[in-house]
Amino acid sequence: MKSVFEYLDYRSFLKDFYEQQKERHGYFSYRYFGKRVGIDPSYLLKVILKSRHLSEKSISGVCDFCGLTDKEAEYFHTLVHFAKARSQRESKLLFEKLLSVRYAKSHRLLERQYEYFRTWYHPVVRSVLEYFDFKGDFALLGKQLYPQISAKEARESVRLLIELNLIKKDTSGRYRLTETAVTTGEEWRSVAIAAYQEETIRLSHEAIERHDRSSRDVSTVTMNIGAADFEEIRERITEFRRSIISFVNESTDPDRTYQFNIQLFPLAGGQGRGG
Fold first, then answer.
1. Whole-model pTM?
2. Does residue 106 have a pLDDT over 60?
3. How many domains in the chain?
4. Which residues contact 17 (CB under 8 A, 6 or more apart)?
5. For position 25, which CATH number holds?
6. What torsion, rounded to 10 degrees, do the Cα atoms 213, 217, 218, 220 define?
7. Which of 52, 131, 164, 246 is the most exposed place for a label (fewest CB within 10 A)?
8. 250 in a domain, yes or no?
């Protein structure tokens, strides 16, 4: 069975632990498991099936029964809180705590994948390298971005992109894009996406002052809609976004990098409030 540090959902760990124990000991059951950790067996099954969560008071008992060390128990506690987080901010803070608790060998790749999304300019540098003839001048590379980044930041970005196999150097010394994509696991996808969206929304705000109207397009509309209208608008946005991506993919001579954000959010009424 994998180390608890390899999990990002505590319920997946419990499921694997149960199946391992069941295979080793014929008597092992949800009833036995629940009795040993002080949890009703039917409720424990719902936890493992991801329809319920462990209570705060039951976490220590589970850690003890599973034989977790102090460090592993700390990680498991954080996993439970991460799964129960009610806001994007809370999820982000707990995910970063998970990274800090994990052992170096087990979290290095995940940490670097998260860094790719957490910092706005890494995806931008990757896009710029598609058309910019970069051969090692990091200061010049940093100046291609708006806002500009330092040579040190550009160097670190290129290093990260190489580590993630998103770029590679060809025989002429120029860095080229690979076909590798950064993928996020189900458990932390929303955290990574939220972190990236926060960064790009901040940039869009700054762009109003940074760029002349001739090089940007910003429009807003406030409207009253019904629940069914909202779903229809979401579908139309998805269709529009796909059409833009298809159009861009057909471009054969790109010479600049743009950020394209579409935002639709509640201002009043309905169920606008939430985590």
1. 0.63
2. no
3. 1
4. 1, 66
5. 1.10.260
6. 130
7. 246
8. no
